[in-house]
Amino acid sequence: MYQQIGAPKSNMKKFVLMASACLNVVLVIALCMTAFSGNNLSSPAVSRRAAVTGVTGGILAATRMARAVDPTNIFETNCGACHQGGGNNIITGHTLSKTAMEQYLDGGWNKEAIEYQIRNGKGPMPAWEGVLSEEEIKAMTDWVYEQSTTAFKDIN
Ligand code: HEC
């Protein structure tokens, strides 16, 4: 169950890397075509350098994207099934709004309590410790806390 929920996340990283790799191939082909077509002002050497720069940049960007913790993405992948739009499909009312958390979250509405529940779960909610990385748990805590007074403020 936990594995199933966790799986799409790593697939996503692979997808980003794959997509970037494909883009790089397209870029190289495009730049090579430019380099070897006669009616072009820039010399092939310049274009080749541009191709190399483009590829290196693309790989670096892809690595950064795959590594960066994206809370919105983590939320949609792992939490969205039960907390779609910040709500709660399993237990009505136990949403991610500040007012709901003040009422239902053990320890009240604060980051420690949010982090505790993400790590340990509660009732039907699974524990995410060991499923999400430490960095991801921290990022989710901050993000949920933030959303609870903004996007999820009026979800009930
Ligand atoms: C399988 C369904 C399920 C998934 C997946 C899930 N939750 Fe929950 N979550 C619940 C349920 C049910 C509750 C209410 C528990 C209770 O109060 O008894 C809850 C409550 C919460 C609360 C407290 C809300 C309140 O009003 O008390 C937070 C914060 C929370 N979840 C965050 C998350 C985060 C972040 C994720 C993803 C990493 C996540 N949940 C994934 C089912 C889920």
From TrEMBL:
Q: Which GO terms describe its molecular function?
A: electron transfer activity; heme binding; iron ion binding
Q: Name one GO cellular component term.
A: chloroplast thylakoid lumen
What are the Cytochrome c domain coordinates in residue numbering?
66-148
Q: Which UniProt keywords apply?
A: Electron transport, Heme, Iron, Membrane, Metal-binding, Thylakoid, Transmembrane, Transmembrane helix, Transport
Q: Which InterPro entries match?
A: Cyt_c-like_dom, Cyt_c-like_dom_sf, Cyt_C6, Cyt_C_IC
Name where it's found: Plastid, Chloroplast thylakoid lumen
Asked whether the keyword Signal is assigned, the reply is no
A Pfam family name for this chain? Answer: Cytochrome_CBB3
The superkingdom of the source organism is Eukaryota
Residues annotated as transmembrane:
15-36
Major site of localization recorded for this protein: plastid
Q: Does the keyword Cell inner membrane apply?
A: no
As for family, the record states:
Belongs to the cytochrome c family. PetJ subfamily.
Question: What biological function has been recorded for the protein in this entry?
Answer: Functions as an electron carrier between membrane-bound cytochrome b6-f and photosystem I in oxygenic photosynthesis.
Spell out the protein name for this chain: Cytochrome c-553
Species for this entry: Gymnochlora stellata
